[in-house]
User: Fold these one by one.
Assistant:
Number 1:
Amino acid sequence: MDESNLSPRKRNNDDPKKHQEQSGRQFRFGIGYLITSLLALWLIQLLTTVLFSGATEIPYNEFKKKLAAGQLVNITIGARSIDGKMKNPTPNAFPPTVPFTAFPAPAGDPKLIEELQNANIPYRFERPPNPIGEFLLGYLLPMVMLGGFWYMGYRRAAGGAGGIFGVGRSKAIEVKPEDISVTYKDVGGADEAIAELQEIIQFLKAPEQFAQLGGHIPKGVLLVGPPGTGKTLLAKATAGEAKVAFFETSGSEFVEMFVGVGAARVRDLFEQARRAAPAIVFIDEIDAIGQSRGGVMRLGSNDEREQTLNQLLAEIDGFKTDASAPVIIMAATNRPEVLDPALLRAGRFDRQIAIGNPDLIGRVEILRIHSKRVKLAADFDIERAARMTAGFSGADLANAMNEAALLAARHKAVAVTLNDFEVAIERVVAGSEKKSRVMNEQERKTVAYHESGHALVAELVPHGEPVSKISIVPHSRGALGYTMQMPTEDRYLLTIDELKDRIAVMLGGRAAEIVEFQIISTGASDDIMRATELARRMVVEYGMSEKLGSVRYAGQQLQYLGTSVEDNSQISPETRQAIDEEVQRLITEQYQRAQALLKDHREGLKTLAQQLLAQETVSGNAVKEALAKNSASEAIATSKHGEESRKAVEV
């Protein structure tokens, strides 16, 4: 028999040394617990008797003396004791009576009733206790409680992962195959990732087909991509396609304050997966426990995160299941650069699948999926809606479609129109409108010329993206206005001229302020930041500087989270100065270029700004109309100038 096909519990029983150690551990625990539980039961009954009685125990001869002296009241005669109250020996003391308990001889006192009657002391006989109730409360209930603690402790001593109160149990949610309703039909824009996962499905459905040629079933699949690209949905859809059990958990659920709990949960998760095989184990945000163990000094050698990662690596290495019941581990992260190299080596996460933001075709598929339950207008153009959302992730598209449906419902519309979707995009990108934020007339005029400058430069540069809408209505995310551009297609390669045009468009707002008011404001802070970042990337990443050449000067980039960390430790001060000079040159050239374009079309700038001041929001057609009026004005001015020159020559 192949030893690799045995279950872990059976392999442990077949190992004599491990079996002997486990039996010894269980025996020592049983003996120690038995002695401890008996002592605890005796102490509980003793303390209960003392605490709940509250009476003073007196000798029986003293009881007879106080009875003869008439110092007793309210006597209760029980089967084993005599209880009552005796008068306080101190006059005018509080309380006036003190409870007592006396124990007569086993044979009893036959003259006690006669003496009580002669002394005129009230007495009564105690009802015999119910033996069943006394047994249940006094013995059975404590034994059941102690037995429960024994069972949990016994499992812990036997090597189980539950631990006391289930602290070491895995928090993974098990979804049965029949309960998984998500398939690849519910996933859009991830055709390449689905094609790679098809092989995993074949492994789960027909593992013997690959085992015949000596192939091994892959252990792990790592899904890498920005947030909101559908990594979790894709993993669940894979389980739905393969019709296998699905265990869903998160990396943060393994990390606790107590060292060793995370490792116990990892062991328990893998044990559950083995029992439910074939199955898929999905660990979301695996970077919570899989961060690199080198390069950062940590206090303490028994760090909980490190212990959990070590246990995860050990389980993956020893993760051998029956060839007819395979188990695949899937994980997702948007920070692959921080993962430990031991986690990514061959034999652990054998497959790494990159999932990016969807392209135009993918966005069309995603919008169709999310619009199945939304009532769209008859003229709703999904392809045009997809073109308006370039760079959106699947989660962004779902949010935009949902916002459009909510907006149409607030307006009591019968269907969602494309205009509702455009407003929803604005809400997702810039936030909700803040019409209550009142700007004075000069501020409104400055914002109008600023946004008009962006729009006109975008229309005038050779590679500018078409403008779809311009607004000077303030929004909740700090924007006093915005210019929305709608690309005609997805771009993956950009030339130096196209990047320069983008910088010119970003600086068009500041250039318009200079052209019209000869003074600048703080409204261009975000434009300057984005333009500077793009110019710096052109110099240090793309090698688009003739002075510095085709050399990369940028450090490590955290590409999935949208932030970057540059390592300039190996760049000389002279090179840093040259980089700054080149960035400044690019910015200055495009800033001057934007000013020159707006000066040549000043009439169009004024026309578009006046229209914005009157309407607050205009479409992209207003830009073309303003430029057309500017051209007509220039033609009239040129014609008048030519007529005057001709008359002067005739004279």
Note: Residues 282 and 592 are 54 Å apart (CA to CA).
Number 2:
Amino acid sequence: MTLFGWTPSVAVEDLRIGGPDWADEDDTLRVGRFEGSARLQRLLAGQLELTRAVVIEPEIVLIVHEDGRRSWVMDDTGPDEPTRLPLIERLLIRDGRVRVDERGRGLTLDAAIDARELAEGVGDEDERSGFRLEGEGALNGQPLTLRVLGEPFVQLRRDRPWRFRAELTGAGSELEARGQITRPFDLSHFTADLSLSGPDLANLYLITGVVTPNTPPYSLEGDLARDDSLWTFNEVTGRVGDSDLSGDVSVDRVDDRLRVEADLRSRSLDLDDLFAVLGAPPDPTETASPEQRARAGAMRAQARLLPDAPLRTERLRTMDGRLDFRADEVKHNDLAVTAVSLGAALEDGILGLDPIAFAFAQGELNGTARIDATGDVPQSTVDLRLAGYPLEAVIPARDGQPTVTGRALGRVRLQGPGASIADFAARSRGTITVVVPQGQMREAFAELLGINVGRGLRLLLSDDQRTTPIRCAVASFDVRDGIGTASTFIIDTDVVLAQGEGTLNLRNERLDIRIDGESKKPRLLRVWSPITVSGPIRSPSVGVDEAAIAGQVGLIAAIGALVAPVAGVLGLIEPGLAEDANCGALISQAR
């Protein structure tokens, strides 16, 4: 030890700093030998500035308890402050090791650390560096590797940045940063060019602690910066699935809680990439991970439409924030969506979605949703309004001509518990309503709604394209425990009044609807049999009750044989006594 002079020095053998009792009796720091010298002028001014430090065989053990306590912090009740070490103009490290055990995330790391005076080649790439930290471990049961290379710690000054490169691979994600610490050994300020990629953005939660949505495979890059507790990731560009993504993200700690602000934009959005955020697997023929392709195949095999991926409620309770997303253009899709705008606000475990806005080539869908994730099972409320959506976009054309035209209005109001969208729908209560105030239907199909066999089939077989007005159509379902029962189901045309009954089952995603039609004009060859709409919601089958038809024809034939041929014919005549529905009242009630 040298205490006199302008750079007093000290040497210590077998230095140990113990850890807390709960840390399995592991010392936080062990050093085989430490040599250091400091500037006397700085010491007299109350500042520590080392001109030289040599650390031989250091072993650092950093343990984070499940409840968040950190073994290297004496008073862990205050805010999480970044590491700030004194300036060391010349730092040498020999045969060092760093061991990390973060029990809450299942993170372990065992790394070697060395710092030399001169840059030298390390690893297969033979990169020149003076500082090296390389290690392996695990994150949530998956392999983890970390590599940090930097300039030699020689002739460092506070006003000269220290440059580094870091690579992290784990939890299915890959991160690479090339940057600089603005003031050496002050880790509260640095900048870097960051690139990251992986099969699902949600995996980043295990690495960063920031809640990110489920996505298809992604590749992003941008400017990362830290300023005390504020982290920013700006000028972000890249792709998520088959969509481009750009924008800015910030993460700050406010009142000891993480707060995330994000403003994101897509110039050309692939719609199924957005639906992946809701837990739906992306199109397996496009950009998707093997796990997502398997999930998509399982949903197709089960004819399921609603995603059953669980919402991670425990993650939503860890942070607050705000997201604004807009897509200026949407790639060609079956729903004819042309633009999207979404807003999300997360506060104390309650997620509000406002707006939910989808623009179509004709029409729009707007609404809000609220997810209360403060309990083990989320409680959700959804209110969506559809305006002006064209029927010809969902009802197939025949011979190149639309069978039905018109603009649909709709509203979905549901609430209830559920750990996923499918679970929520299966346990929900509320109403689902669709209204067509007016439109046109091919007369052949309108006649068949009343099973007017003679006229309907003749018009179809002759390829008659004449239409009849739809005065109104209203379908309203009262939903209880995921089963919607038709309270109103009416299709009123100039020639037929059709009324229906049945269920929309959100538990198994199936329809079971029977439609009875009455002609408004006398018709020959009218058979009384309901039209049936049944099967999976995503691909229902339309047919008739064949047993009812067979029974009626057989009965009429028997009567005709016993009484007279004219009596048999009379049994097939529709007198045409149906009256117009009160469309104004029906529409007003449905809304």
Note: Residues 1-198 form one domain.
